[in-house]
Write a structure and sequence with these properties.
The chain has one domain: Macrophage Migration Inhibitory Factor. Helix content is 25%, strand content 21%. The chain has three helices and four strands, in the order E-H-E-E-H-E-H. It has a four-stranded mixed beta sheet with strand order 2-1-3-4, with helices on one face. Helix 1 runs antiparallel to helix 2. It is globular, with a radius of gyration of 23 Å.
Length: 154
């Protein structure tokens, strides 16, 4: 946690320096969200994107989704969204060739969220099999009453 997904129009492949963006994004997300976790980011190019009534490929689109553990106020999430958009603007082309629509959303991860980190065998790090969410105990099973445990004879 945080989990970050960046969906973007494939026509930005050569113009969007994703590595430079993520180098600045990760520390900013950690600082602004107060997270002590490790950012993990997926970049997903979309072969076709449509904006409004424009034809496919006329306008590029980028959406950044950030999932955090619950508990942050709405103001913090809104501020982080604004910062992400400002940072994104510095990594997207600012020319007459590319028209880009960008959006960002910071949301809470679902209560069912769990994370397991399995370091590679060659990393020399013991595998702690840490779960980054409190474990949920199995449901309690009520003991069977003596009447329910007795075999039926009818």
């Amino acid at each position: 946690m945080p989990h970050i997904t960046v969906d973007y129009s494939a026509q930005l492949d050569d113009a969007f320096d994703r590595q430079a963006f993520v180098r600045e994004l990760h520390p900013m997300v950690l600082e602004e969200s107060g997270s002590t976790g490790v950012c993990k980011t997926f970049f997903r190019p979309a072969a076709e994107t449509y904006v409004g009534r424009r034809e496919a490929g006329q306008v590029a689109f980028v959406h950044v989704d950030i999932g955090l553990l619950p508990g942050r106020p709405a103001e913090t999430k809104a501020r982080l969204s604004e910062y992400v958009l400002a940072l994104l603007g510095t990594h997207l082309p600012a020319d007459d060739v590319h028209e880009v629509v960008a959006s960002a959303e910071v949301r809470d991860l679902a209560d069912s969220y769990r994370l397991n980190h399995s370091p590679s065998a060659g990393a020399g790090v013991p595998n702690p099999r840490r779960l980054h969410a409190p474990p949920v105990p199995p449901p309690a099973i009520a003991p069977r009453s003596a009447a329910a445990a007795a075999p039926r004879t009818s």
